[in-house]
Amino acid sequence: MSESVVVIGGGPAGIEAARGVADLGLPSILIEQRERLGGTPIFANYAALTPYFEDAEQAMDAMIAELNARPLAEVRTNTTVTGLSGEAGAFTVELSTGESLEAGAVIVATGFDHFDPGRERQIYNYYQYPDVLTLQDLEAQLKAHEVLVPSTGKPPERICWVQCVGSRDRNIGNEWCSKVCCGIASKQAIEVREMVPGCRAYIFYIDMRMYGYWETQLYWPAQEKHHVQYIKGIITEVLERGDRLVVRGEDTTMGRPLEVPMDMVILSVGMEPSAGTKSMAGVLGIEPNRYGFIEAAKPPLDTVSTSRTGVFACGAALGPADLEDTISSAGAAAGKAVALVRRGTLQTV
Amino acid sequence: MSESVVVIGGGPAGIEAARGVADLGLPSILIEQRERLGGTPIFANYAALTPYFEDAEQAMDAMIAELNARPLAEVRTNTTVTGLSGEAGAFTVELSTGESLEAGAVIVATGFDHFDPGRERQIYNYYQYPDVLTLQDLEAQLKAHEVLVPSTGKPPERICWVQCVGSRDRNIGNEWCSKVCCGIASKQAIEVREMVPGCRAYIFYIDMRMYGYWETQLYWPAQEKHHVQYIKGIITEVLERGDRLVVRGEDTTMGRPLEVPMDMVILSVGMEPSAGTKSMAGVLGIEPNRYGFIEAAKPPLDTVSTSRTGVFACGAALGPADLEDTISSAGAAAGKAVALVRRGTLQTV
Tens of pLDDT along B167-218? Predict the structure, then answer.
């Protein structure tokens, strides 16, 4: 029997889960493959978090500092999990370092990767045109407080976002909606309009999925205060004409073809299971879903249990998730992991 | 000092939070104003849960049975909370029964009410026409396995859902998107098409907010397998013509007026703070948001803390939430409440 909980993945979900376990009185060991904690918000250069615009680096630093302040929480960076044996209450977790750890439970928090817009189809010419960027490319510019057209080095006069790149798309196998891209594009459009007031901003979308409070936190301010133009339309091509880009498609509200010049085109790339998430199914002996994310075994009334007793998952390892989803499911996973270990230790229930 | 956690509200969020606290080794006391647990899924007669179509009553009975199996979990029905004094770690909770309870922490799980479609405006004539129903009226029919036009007692030949009734609507002050109605309408349309195969089903929407996996769990099957027709259009009136209803509005994709006969019109009524949620702000001395839901004090990286230390909130008391959001935030709230009580007891951190 072991009282420790091993948490795999050092992004927001993993940090929150590891801190949660420690706050509930059990030792947590957080395993991160990279050299530092922070996950996608740090490594994809996020500027501000959606929807409240906190500085991403400060927010992650604060989370990491909270974790580091817990004597019960241990962090191992530059380490991956290579195997799992035993059973709930008495797992042995093998590490890439050659060590092995005893653990009562395991929490998978290996997250997502941004869709690679060059994979399979190249209709948006991401790798060909320097002024076609992804959400995270623009985040890096926003983080540097300098929004510039890459080919000219000047601020853009016209910028647009193309929604659902790598989402809601059967041709490439990504059938799901990635949930957060409508909110992130809207957040970015607000930031661009604030940094480059003369720049016109357009968002081409299929459905604006601004659920819950995002409607009033982002969607209405973007339109009313920041004059972002939302156009229901499907962009089928991005072309170069002279020294400008042209986006081409159909304006579905107006029912007519659409061809608009742009200085910068931002591809709202969706969420895919990260390499770590895809590999964890095999390493840990848990069921993935058909897309390669971790399958929640008993949704909707249990959101974090997997097919293997004692192994839990949280955050975007389970599928598209916003930060609030991620933090809530990480807290829930910490609670379920600690409860399971306590049950084993106390020999009750 | 008290080790107990008082949970207010006996729906999915409260049951999950109370069970979570008990599983983490502390006593939980669940306070429910009605005569039994189950919350909105039971009292609004839900048939099947979104998106996996489990029987709602069976699912809630299973949750309640799990809670009742915990010796550390106590349930008080027919009881409301009338006051809170003291501070985190040593609260005194006053009850409508005249008793008071000592509690280390409090979790608010008082949920939502369905929007009343007769409030303020009557453009859909809900109280005038018997064949205009709400989502929960239709749930009751689905639960009875009998979908019938109220005025004729016959199965409908044409049924439609009008989305965003009481949501995304500044005129009535409900500015938020209620998040779940697109999914619930789609679930219901699938169920109606299965029970009444000859019935045509239409969903009139502004944006289909089928985020994450709902896209493939509900939206595509509804269209492809069950031939539900989705029409982007805003319905401005429901009228009677002869013995049928007529919905009138604008088909925004086709850019033309729309007038369609229907046997039944289902109003996809959104979420509002429940009476209990609205009153808890005053009773517990916590900040509501401008809509009357409980304000999360530190989102997005803390989803369940309120403005008063030691008082947490979860589920739809915080705002529009689907069942998975609710269960995750309930688990997170249980964890944070137990951690806080433990910290007080152990005098550490």
Answer: 999 989 999 999 999 999 999 999 999 999 999 999 999 999 999 999 999 9
> In terms of Cα–Cα distance, which of B311, B307, B312 is closest to B287?
B307
- Angstrom distances, CA of residue B57 to CA of A113, B12, B44, B78, B267: 38, 12, 11, 20, 23
Q: What's the one-letter identity of residue A146? A: E
**A212–B177 CB contact, under 8 Å:** yes
Q: Is A152 on the interface with B (CB under 8 A)?
A: no
pLDDT surpasses 60 at B8: yes
B322 inside 8 A of chain A by CB: yes
For residue A244, the one-letter residue type is R
User: Would you call B207 and A209 a contact, using CB atoms and an 8 Å cutoff?
Assistant: yes
Beta strand pairing call for A105-108 and A5-8: parallel
CB contact under 8 A, A220 and B175: yes
Query: Is the Cβ pair A328, B323 closer than 8 Å?
Result: no
Q: Report the C-alpha gap between B185 and B182 in whole angstroms.
A: 5
Any A CB within 8 A of B127 CB: no
Chain A residues whose beta carbon lies within 8 Å of the beta carbon of residue B175: 215-216, 220
Q: What domains can you pick out in chain B, each with its CATH number?
A: 5-111+274-348 (3.50.50.60), 117-270 (3.50.50.60)
How high is the ipTM of this complex? 0.96
Q: Give tens-digit pLDDT for A132-190.
A: 999 999 999 999 999 999 999 999 999 999 999 999 998 899 999 999 999 999 999 99
- Is A100 within 8 Å of A92 (Cβ atoms)? yes
| A324 contact B CB<8A | yes
Conformational region of residue B319, where left means phi above 0, alpha means psi within -120 to 50, and beta covers everything else? left
